[in-house]
Specification:
By secondary structure, the chain is of the alpha+beta class. It has helices at about 25-30, 55-60, 175-180, 195-215; strands at about 15-20, 35-40, 45-55, 70-75, 80-85, 100-105, 110-120, 125-130, 135-140, 150-155, 165-170, 185-190. Strands 1-2-3-4-5-6-7-8-9-10-11-12 form a 12-stranded antiparallel beta barrel. The chain starts with 15 loop residues before the first strand and ends in an 8-residue tail after the last helix.
Amino acid sequence: THNLPPGLEYLNQLDRIIIHQQVELLEAILGTETSSKYEIKNHLGQRVYFAVEENDCFDRNLCSPIRSFTIRIADNMGREVIRVIRPLRCNSCWFPCFLQELEVQSPPGTTAGYVVQNWDPFLPKFTIQNQSKEDVLKIIGPYATCGCFEDVDFEVKALNEMTTIGKISKYWSGFVNNVFTNTANFGIQVPVDLDVRMKAVMIGACFLIDLMFFENSLDGL
């Protein structure tokens, strides 16, 4: 563990990570996008990290699903341990040269890996890359991300896309919660022995999936 980036030792024994967006009353009442805040927990519901999105009001309200952002993730001592950086890019499969790409740093300033959107006319597809931009894993979503009162799963697969090793799930949490607060509740399941840097990149992938497919939708309906 002495070779792990500072703060990522919390992820070393985890095979399940829960991400819960905190309710923003101003956003719920006025319908105005505010900076998102998240609690990142283990499977027992204990908080291991706290995340805050940084961008400006223009990005949040006019570029909402494709907005650029920096998400700073801190441990329970307030030490920033992960930084997720998303530039402003296209969100359409009709522009394959300018699809989504997100960088995850841990410690901040040192690249841990990338999440890269892959062109596909039907399915949401992403590649998880290491710090050298070498492909490590794939993420493949469903044809429709509208769950109709059930969870929506994005499968984590080996590079051959045949073997499923985990998933990122958008949990359906009820009509009232989704419509009036638009909060996000996600679960990440990965092998416990997956490199902690790749677990950190999976957290970044979860934020990207949330904004691309669930930010302005009636999640799970």
